[in-house]
Records
---
Amino acid sequence: MRLILILSFFFLLFSCADKPSVEQDVDPKEEKILNHSQSGKKQSTPSKQKATSNFTFFTHLQPEGWGYRISEKGKQIIDQQFIPGIPGNQGFRTSEEAQKVAELVIEKLEKGTFPPTISEEELQKLGISWRN
């Protein structure tokens, strides 16, 4: 009886999870293959991780535009769906724009800045465009 309760608990625990919390366990090559085979679903681009960094990021496409997710040691800490530092809910126009900002955020995190806020001036220096 105890075994059934324990197994039921683990079944419920794992069946309720929306998605795995550790995104960086996915091999980047497998990630690209996965994204190309899942038409109509969000697309993502894995980051180029520095050898000494604990942070990784993925860019992802959504209805509002591109966004990014940042993980630290495999645990997601930021899910940025919109361009930070500007009013409104607007996604990035390209994956490259989302990548530039994600890299800047990671630089700030590595320096110990939390929260790693982004200003309009920093967006302009990175060449990020948005609609007013």
---
Amino acid sequence: MNIVAPVAIGFLAFLIAAWVVWKWNTRKTQVRIDAPIPDDFPSEGFSHEAFERLLSRFTSNGRIDYERWHREIDARRELDSYLAAVARFGPDTTPERFDRDQDALAYWMYAYNALVIRTILQRWPLKSVTDLKAPIEIIKGLGFFYNLEFAVDGHWYTLYAIEHERVTGLGRDPRVHFVLNCGSEACPAVRPELPTGDALEPFLEQAARDFIANPKNVSVDRDTKTIRLSAIFKWYKKDFVGDLQRRGLPSGRGVIAYVESMVSPELAAQLADSRDFKIAFVDYDWRVNVAETE
């Protein structure tokens, strides 16, 4: 009996079934934000002032007071109005509003952060962004980052697509990884200031140096001969090493070389004296980055 045909048919049926399950599990849900654009929104450029005001009110030590923000209905409406402007205007649909690449980059970074906050507020109380799950959570964060779609710049994007297609996927400055905030404890601190244009360069530089200076993200354990790094350096290793190569800097030590280019002299000396140490990436803490309240 020739069993090749039945086996082939069975394998094909399995592939089709797997494809159907994958498509069903990763189907997108469009999140529509019904809000008016602010009356005072400028006719030229793009203003992040409304979002900046909100962050100043509800951010403390890099974390967000979601509980208070959720209670204040007017503040939630103000965030929705800002996101209505994000949906309507953008570098693709209204390029005349974005004279410089820095303005477009700022737009996408701040849109990402605002949508993360809005998603958490809509589902508050939420202990972890990974609690918002797809029917089958094949990838951690699938429900939060991959399945929800938002209107941005006249198109529909998931949070994953915004990050990888519009912020980091075009070989842009890897320091953006220290500004994008996925709403979790292990993420970079939420920064209430939202600069654009020429002010964006020092902002990115400071964000990178602050993140790397935090012992939670970079530390040297001499007892165990281990350099401990945030998982961000593992996930985006190509971005960091690629940046070193573009700048003509030595990249033989990989992400350690990038870290060395950003640290204080004291930590740089520790890293230089630990060339035979192993590297360990710290497990990512996905708990929501809630501000401590009295």
---
Amino acid sequence: MQSSQPIHFNLVAAAHAAMIEHGFQPDFPPAIAPELAAIQAHPEPPAAPGIQDLRGLLWSSIDNDTSKDLDQIEWAEQLPDGRIRVLIGVADVDARVPLGTALDAHARSETTSVYTGVRVFPMLPSELSEGITSLNENQDRVALVIEYSVDQAGTVNDGKAYRALVRNRAQLAYNSVGAWLEETGPAPAKVAASADLAAQLKLQDAAARRMVDGRFQHGALDLETIETRPVMLADQAVEIARQAKNRATSLIEEFMVAANGVIARTFEDAGVASIRRIVRTPKRWDRIVEVAQALGATLPAVPDSKLLNDFLLAQKAKDPDHFPDLSLAVIKLMGPGEYVLVKPNETSPGHFGLAVQDYTHSTAPNRRFPDVVTQRLMKALLAKAPQPYAEGDLNTIALRCTFMEDNARKVEREMQKRIAAVVLHPRIGQSFRAIVTGVNHYGTFVRTLDPHVDGMLVSGGKGLDVGDRVTVKLVSTDPQRGFIDFAV
């Protein structure tokens, strides 16, 4: 019998409880209140020597439709020799949140903002992360600018960093800019109103196209996982929407990978210890080889990201419907990313999935503590001042950031399941097209195609295997436990 009644379940309260359960402090401590009040009393950009004035450039930002914590803005320039010069302005959070303050201590403990779908639990108070330290449109802000040039082959060179005053001229969103760049939708209103902005974005896109082609040549992995977001009506989740990647998301990803590489190499050249973001060479490469073999492809016994990506590109062309599931399997077999201390003259393990050796996190300081630390290290280097962290302290921070990032993923996964259970409850009894995504001693697991939801087969799963397509009927949902049960 089909259920048509929505279930009343407090998702926000569940998210708050999940944060506490996984070691977060979702409510800010009282000690930060006087520090926050002092910052709000003087919101103008702080003055400091050696800061350039780049507010005259046509900076813009591209982020999610709902993003309020804007960490970076971009600008590009065509050079006479064919290269494209790119500038990334990163919010100078450290200018407002100095080392040793209560705000800093809380951020160091939390290490990351957590996005649960129904509420954001920010690492820093929203008055900062969405206000005074956010690169909001038409607001003067102080930033750390990361500059580099991109040649025809996609090689990044001439990297450097410096401090500057900046002004975001146009806050834009991935969906509308991506559709315009791909010629599947109209220009966003701000782009349509400014030929200069349109030309600026086209130039940025051209630089990003060069960089992605260059990284693929060196073995960067073309992975395509499916991400979803809840559609909220008041405080209730009523639908699950799929978030697709596009040219705009790729543009920002490429720019950030390059910027993070510039920072890492600058530290290396200066002999400065830093925190790097790494994905080690897969320990379960043998299983990746087996997965490829089952699909009729051969991979070498020794890990090779270039040959793995060649296989992925071939599978994407041959079977696009199953490619997100293959991507997810490869990501799980590669293992999670982690933060590590890299000492001067020490080789970084690198980032296997990105095919880069030098990679740190520096471009999202409003939402990630490692980026604040990196910002402080770079500002000290630029000022020729003593480094603010000892190597042992950096190692402790790296371990904490890895631990809390893993906990954040657990919170986000739990909430995705709860949201799906709430959204699907009125549809009990309905049938859905699905793909089998897992078979083990616990049972058989499926992913429905529309909406994109994971669940378990409680009957009719005998004889099915991963990749099989089935029609399933929704039997029950349990938002508290995040369970969604289907029958064939």
